[in-house]
């Protein structure tokens, strides 16, 4: 007794006492686990002294917040494994939120790049309004008007797509390579040919056409390189301004003409392109000299090739212009380049006047268009939100600009913004999913830290009970657990932000390379703020339930270490009273949710449909899907025990050699751990289900974009004339025989090709409508009657579901395709229709189509209507290029017919088969050929050469998909990383659940070991339990995700009318399940190894 009292120091001051007692407290905390057992054998006075010592040290330790932090740190250092798991959880939240929110902030950059591939790198283009009386814009005056308005300070002038002939002078009769700049022969003819000289003198405008061969029609763009670089147009354009007397040629025209850098070309410039400056100088010269100048319309300019550029290496120009024969000249020096080469009848004073006008900037007084950028870098202006938000912002900006320049004189087009509208759905989808991912990660992290703190509270039940007994206050207990939770946050916050910044900086390099766009290297400030807030909030929210349990624990039970931690029976007493808000809170929440759902469906959904607010409609659809997923989660949580029992019985049917006692013990364990297992299984199943839903949703969006391109091209190459005249009448394809020869000469790489015609109602202004009717004329639908070649449906398809045949006339199904049957004697006067018309026209009875009932195809013209009776041949769900669908459609769908039928239906507009107005040619190639890329490039170049100077346009599927593939790679990387983070946190939560289960039953494990149960049997019991919980939760999660994903796929297919299939993510699901089972075994093996192999039975029973 005296000895025990002697070891207690007697402090002289309060500070010294606190210091000594704190040291004594920490020494007691480090005592061996056997100390409580040894204390039982001491006398009552010894116990009293020990408790007195603990009371004094407790009072001193909690006297300041520093002591509380020190004790929290001390507790954390005792459980380094739990500390690492908690830090990893918070780290993943901070890291993923910072990265994802930054990525979603700059995600529009991807869609801006896709839009720029089509429309070029211009925010707004201003051109003279048709009918205003002006054909040019005075850029100098525009710059003066906008000088004091910073919002409109980013602009540059252009002469866009100026047509003109270009020749290789080596093919010209009269050109001397020793004097390449001599162009007099282009007006007067060669000196050695009197007949040619006479012709040239009579018509100098066409002289060069008769002297030169191998001429090309080039689209010249006259630009100001430095001004465009200043407004961020042509980010990847590296060439300097075009030198005086030189030209930049596109690779397509240079290869076709056999030109190289340093060679000379002859370019025919039309003086009407710059009429004002020519008239001004002409008037000045005539007034000064008193002589009249006889004008000619052209200037034949010799130009030296200064550079050859790849048209597709930059989005400086729109796609339709990059497909042309491009050549570039500099606006600031164009007049100086042209001036020396006017015809000989122009005096030298005129040439000098043109040079002087150039140096005074007269070339800027009359330009074709002016391009504007809203911000620099340009992509920053598109980071403001959804497409509707951007449309409002850019619309207000463009409207004010138009007002200042004059609404009556200009027209403004929003080039990039218009093209971005096509990708608005997936942009909203990404933004919404990012928000949901952040919420999911926070929820999983909260649950994980909750499990960590619960384990900490349960392991310290006796310590907390002693502290409460000797006078610890409630706020001190709360502060201790909060500080312990925050110890997870501080290091995780720092490392999370640092690694997020590092990853974003590295990913930025690859993104810039793929998107040809420079981005800011820093994380978004909003992302840093939100990540910081969540890094601090998540641990504190996670500590709420453990704090409640620590404060509400019974003091006697906390001090009694002999009783079992696991309560087999729980008694709940419900007091009969008037009730409180807390009692009715679940019902109130359920009522609010149901009322909100009813309001959403009854009012907001019709509002979105009527107002065509696609953003609101998309949010409603996604919200309903998430609600469905949450409802399935609740349903799955109730089926979890049933699934566990079924799986356990099935497992023991497989492991038949295990004893029945093991089955009963596992069953009892599942019952005892049901409360914790239910929470963990719910979170795991929700995480897995959400990952499936996320993967399916993303794949659906990507497949939809890719399908649109593949459906439009309907092969690997499409050559089409989709232009109409001012009256809306079609312009048919030309050079058909040449295109056929190119395809034939490139067999077998070119497998096959087919043609389609223009719709019958586009043949002439006299055709007003074409519609299909049943015989009773009770149902009428406007259709687009299209003639197709017999092999159209036989073309190798670029993807699945491009061609889906719904139903077919069994009589005419002789082993040929439907389009081939159109050209058989039996298929005469038959048509191929959309599947939805089968029921819409009353052709379906008893689930089968009536192919014997004729239909009426009515062609309405200015002179009246003509009816033709036709029979249905096939009903198609989806067809390449043609708009056919199985879903009800309000707009015009296609009807496919043979060329003879098409000619007969035209009412004399098509006189013979030779006069068929072709609209498109679809070419399929061998995609498995080892030289696919090079051979496809050769074919595309030959076809482009053949259709130059025509209204035909060529589309290459490989090139069309490049933008989508780049976007898919970037977004896929983001989602793969996100799914990995969700999987890690979910698996860590599962691991902590298994750890808590084994800890709760440590005494039972000690008892079973004392009774002689082998270690291997004990190990398998808990491994089987974790396996059952994991697989049952995973199976329910797969079912939930599959139902939700399939629902979204079906909804998207209905809305978009695309034949989308459900892309089940087998790789994700299998990887998640394998990782979960592996994690269950590993996390069970750790605690069980400690209880079974490292600790003695006596030590386990004493805990």
TrEMBL record:
Q: Which residues form the ABC3 transporter permease C-terminal domain?
A: 436-554, 979-1089
Membrane protein topology class: Multi-pass membrane protein
Highest taxon of source: Eukaryota
Q: Which residues form a coiled coil?
A: 940-967
Query: What does the UniProt keyword field contain?
Result: Cell membrane, Coiled coil, Membrane, Transmembrane, Transmembrane helix
Give the InterPro entries listed for this entry: ABC3_permease_C
Query: Which residue spans traverse the membrane?
Result: 90-114, 429-453, 523-547, 585-605, 617-636, 681-700, 970-996, 1017-1044, 1064-1086
Q: Could you tell me what this protein is called?
A: ABC3 transporter permease C-terminal domain-containing protein
Lineage at the top is: Eukaryota, Fungi, Fungi incertae sedis, Chytridiomycota, Chytridiomycota incertae sedis
